Amino acid sequence: MGDKNVLEIRHLRTSFFTQKGEIRAVDDVSLDVPEGKITGIVGESGCGKSMTARTVLRLLKYPGKLVGGEILFDGRDLTKLTEKEMAKIRGGEISMIFQEPMTSLNPVVRVGKQVEEALRLHRRLPAREARRQAVAMLDAVGIAEAEKRAHCYPHELSGGMRQRVMIAMAMICKPKLLIADEPTTALDVTVQAQILNLMKRLRDNGTSILLISHDLGVVAQVCDTVYVMYAGRIVEQAEVCELFDHAAHPYTRGLLGAVSSLGSGAATLETIPGVVPNLLHLPAGCAFSLRCGECRADCAGHLPELRECAPGHRVRCHRIGEVSA
Ligand SMILES: Nc1ncnc2c1ncn2[C@@H]1O[C@H](COP(=O)(O)OP(=O)(O)O)[C@@H](O)[C@H]1O
Ligand SMILES: [Mg+2]
């Protein structure tokens, strides 16, 4: 472990080419996932988090299309690989887990068998050895009586147990990178906490994780670094403590639940008014200007750069330089 990045995304662009026009779901996104850390992407629904993850794994469906950028993984640019090379990486070197385990698990196959198959897809192993490793992995992700539970069908397990099975499937090939897209969203808070603790344990054992969530609370609990996304763009990035202590972007502060209006005292908002705008009709400038309480006349006209406002802390807002100046 060190300062090495497992994944470096550079100027990534993914668009949906629809009859109504181009929807820029991922618009010039750059991010690093350092080895042995949990890196978070947070933002409201529709901000482009899942599309970023799907682009990395090259799982885009028509009319979604990679428009530009680089995805550097382990010295290779994933955008340049053939489908066959990519298939080897998916589930082998990079694994992904999703929000709803039931849709990714096969309902008619015992869970132990499914973990075993995930392993045998990428590694040639005798059946007995694959079985032993599958049970060991179910045990490692906190499934009690793993030997017995391996014989269960998905519907015989609780939501939390099913998500653990998904994590076991994702981890069985010892991926260099785990991408978890809203892994706890469908779970109640107690189970959510258990799954997040499991993520931390995986991290402490050296797994690099990209964790996607709409919930800043989830991100706060486990992430080392956080990227805040809004309308397809990164609007803020910082180490988790820095972000929570010194959130700079009005959107991030909105997500934090307390937006203080600059200058005149503090106005507290429970939530950010309005919704993520239709990505077909974005202003040329800051996309958040439509909902921002601190917006000035020219915010919608000019796109702010993502600028460093403190070491390792970057923000895309016209008002930030102004405030510290
Ligand atoms: N099949 C699709 N066709 C057209 N646009 C889509 C499609 N899927 C997603 N999008 C666009 O991509 C944006 C980002 O989606 P997504 O990455 O799933 O958001 P998130 O995961 O942050 O909730 C959506 O707001 C939508 O505008
Ligand atoms: Mg999503």
Bound ligands: adenosine-5'-diphosphate, magnesium ion
Q: Identify the quaternary structure here.
A: single chain
Strand ordering within the main sheet: 6-7-8-3-9-10-12-11
Number of helices: 12
- Helix and strand element order: EEEHEEHEHHHHHEHEHEEHHEEH
Low-confidence stretches: 258-270
Tell me the total number of β-strands: 12
Radius of gyration based on Cα positions: 21 Å
Mean pLDDT, nearest integer? 90
Name the beta content range: 15-25%
Largest sheet: 8 strands, mixed
Helix and strand content put the structural class at alpha/beta
Helix content: 25-40%
Alpha carbon gap, first and last residue: 38 Å
Shape: globular
Overview features:
single chain; 325 residues; alpha/beta; eight-stranded mixed beta sheet; 12 strands; binds adenosine-5'-diphosphate
Describe what you observe in this structure.
By secondary structure, the chain is of the alpha/beta class. Among the domains are: 101-174, no CATH class; 247-324, no CATH class. The chain contains 12 helices and 12 strands. It has helices at residues 49-56, 83-89, 101-104, 111-122, 127-140, 146-149, 159-171, 189-204, 216-222, 240-245, 250-255, 318-324, and strands spanning 5-18, 21-34, 38-42, 64-73, 76-77, 94-97, 177-181, 208-213, 225-230, 233-239, 307-310, 313-315. An 8-stranded mixed beta sheet has the order 6-7-8-3-9-10-12-11, sandwiched between helices. A hairpin with a 2-residue loop joins strand 9 and strand 10. Helix 4 packs across helix 5 (127-140), helix 4 (111-122) runs parallel beside helix 7 and helix 5 crosses helix 7. The structure holds adenosine-5'-diphosphate and magnesium ion (MG).
